[in-house]
Predict the structure.
Amino acid sequence: MSESLRVDVTIIGGGIAGCAAAVALRKARLTVALLDKSLCGAAASGVNFGGVRQQGRDLAELPIARRARPLWDGLNERLGEDVEFEATGHLKLARSDADMAQLERYAQDAAAHGLRLELLGTGALRSRAPWLGAGVTGASLCAEDGQANPRKVGPAFARLARRLGADVREHEAVRSATRGGAGFETRTDRLEVKSRFLVNCAGVGAGEVARWFGEDVPLRPLVPNMLVTEPLPFFIDRSIGVCGGGVYLRQIARGNAILGGGGGWGDADCSRSRPATATSLAAMASAIALVPALAGSLVIRTWAGIDGAMPDHIPVLGFSATTPDLVHAFGFSGHGFQLGPIVGEIIAELLTEGRSLSPLAPFAIERFAGATAAPCAPVDVDA
Amino acid sequence: MVIVGAGPAGVRCAEALVHAGVRPIVIDEAEQPGGQVYRQPPTGRARRSSAIYGFEAKKAVSIHRAIGDAGARIDYRPGTLVWNVYGDGLDLLTREGSRQQRFDRLVLATGAMDRALPFPGWTLPGVFTLGGAQIALKAQGVAIGRRVALVGAGPLLPLVAHQYANAGVDVVAVLDTTDFAAKRAQLSGLCASAGTLAKGLWYTTRNRLRGLVVRYGVRSLRATGAGRVEALAWREASGEECSVACDAVGASFGLRSEAQLAELAGCRFAFAAAARQWLPEKTPEGRSSVAGVYLAGDGARIGGADVAELQGRRAALAVLEDLGLTVNRGERESLDRALARQARFRRALDAAYPFPGHLLDAVGDDEIVCRCEGVTAAALRQAARDHAAVDINRVKALTRIGMGRCQGRVCGEVAAELLARACGSDLERVGRLRGQPPVKPIPIVASAP
């Protein structure tokens, strides 16, 4: 016998976005059931690099990234636990004049969104970050960007959602969701949930959910590959990215350096991922080129996680094109961590007011109408 | 054909394959064959084998020589760490750097390590594991201290006490955290391996005749000292509180299988109630759940060195059968009979040395559970409570337990035990820490291969 629930909103997927949506919806006094196939915050939300970064994002994402940023300052207080957010600043490194020109152009564009970036030439950069390698010729610094512990943010949001009365169910993989006259019916092996609204935050599984409602989106799995070293004396005081990608790295206060870059292996059904040795070794070599002092440090763990990526590397965020009262929020393409908290708010705005304060047109699912699943171009995924 | 490990299981497996005309690659982390049990002194520091290995000297020498005797018929690669398995490839770390080795068939003979349990003072300098104490003696010819207290919950305890006393160390206490009655009750089962039993009784008797303080049913251990261990205190089975001055403690509580490579190889695991550990499934012949991957020795199930030799030979026969080669039926049947007899002995031995769960029941909030990351029992319990966590990987994510240099090899099962106690769950339900490469740390290097 399956258990039946009736709520205002069913959320599929307990990543940061889904859990933050549950929190925001409870504050708006809607009843919420959240269903996660394993544990909340354990997939892409929990195993990513932990970059809380605005600079370098697609300009279309900057308005929501700008709204997300102040939420991080108050997150510990709001969640009642330390998610280790620190505004360490983010340095995007240039290794050529062309890189520097690209950073200058981006800084101008970002300024229009109120994002102030400081451009550093070789000399200024050397004095600020003497530990950078000789090949680095300049950088763009976003002082207000930072980093946080991804393993803690999702579970903390899930816990707050529970405290606020959301019905959070883990190990409940959704098998089907349909819409009838009385609203949505969402089924797992043990549960049947009836609701007026449905939110699709299912990460790499979101493409399948969208297809249940006749929306074929070209969502592809993306498997970021990560490494962490043993604790080292602290010296990398900024989060680091580089023009052209390949590697990104940061060091946490207790000394471990975390590096990412390139892709690992994902299972065909996207249930498990594995780091790939060639990728890990290449990331090591690239990291040494940027930060030579990392040479010889010991890597104690490598891992990979699976995110959903769109061909244009920006998410699908907004109402369904086919089904009323269905909201999609997926395809964050390897850089959704910083956005998670605001995406929860945006989902609540859509369901309670029918519109968002943020410009969501670039994220409309309609942009893929008639699209087939084209191969994803390689992408810089440093969050 | 690749064998990982050159202890008793790996060496005997290699030898049996060579006999059948197969040339295996034997990859071993150590510089010389023997594994931990027959670990050799460094080159140039050789000592008389009978002084190092006692009764087992003949076996040890035979294992040491087997690889050399095979000459070019074994491709022996010492000093090489296998840090990952993926698909049909192994990732290796050699002195020259990282490289890869493909395999058609893989025998994992990865051995075991001490099971450490937390008790007050267990992280003080001067507190070692029993296995560590023994390795110091075997490989380096040094003791862990001058006045040494030894604590255990397995057959290694009387052996190490004997070896230390023989080496002239002042062994101030030999404390067994399991009850003597449990051993007496298993006598008939232990007779399944009469030779091993006789040796165990001999060590125990010798220890008593030397006048060593030997106690059973010891509870509530505490190591104390300012900056390093200076004394060990305990409660006797009678309830009496005792203490001895010492400058080193050797304490561990049975062995745990080093099964990380089997996990990375994709082998299916099952919870083994007797071992209180998740272990790779295997057939009596040594086949894992993955075609072409075989398991032998303590790395898959704790059985001891003699069983490891038998399993190594048996796994070789399984490999040969799977290659479509004929194997000697008499040899196969005699191995299977010997393994069945040893299995009876092992069941009795496990019952004679039951898991000292009382030590875990007594772990206080301030106790460090994960040494690498400095995570206390309180942090684990709070995470379990605040997040209603019943999954050890969730607690790992929240507390960093098992995320340090040892990657949970030391603390993983202890954390699972404490979590099960904290949430009133059974041990199986809290699961096990997911294995991730590298199984041991590897350096960041500049050149990709």
User: Anything to note?
Assistant: The longest strand of chain A covers residues 3-12. The radius of gyration of chain A is 20 Å. Confidence is low (pLDDT under 50) at residues 372-379 of chain A.
